[in-house]
Specification:
The chain is α+β, with helices and mostly antiparallel strands. 22% of the residues lie in helices and 35% in strands. The protein is built from one helix and four strands. A four-stranded mixed β-sheet has the order 3-2-1-4, with helices on one face. The protein starts with a strand and ends in an 8-residue tail after the last strand.
Length: 68
């Protein structure tokens, strides 16, 4: 089983991760810390049941372009 997280970058440069289909949300100031926080959050969420075999971090980039 794989769990997928949608990652968005905040205006201040930090990241927010939301588990798709699960009530798991975490955040961090940098990518490495986010990876650690996601791993900890998944372990805590699945503490009494089988854990996913992998975690996919899907970075969503939303960019608005002005049309001249």
């Amino acid at each position: 089983m794989e769990i997928v997280f949608s990652i968005t970058q905040e205006a201040d440069g930090g990241y927010v991760a939301e588990g798709l289909g699960y009530d798991i949300v975490t955040e961090a100031n940098d990518w490495e810390s986010l990876r650690e926080n996601v791993t900890e959050a998944v372990s805590a969420y699945f503490f009494d049941q089988p854990k996913p075999s992998s975690i996919r971090l899907h970075l969503v980039r939303d960019e608005v372009l002005a049309v001249a």
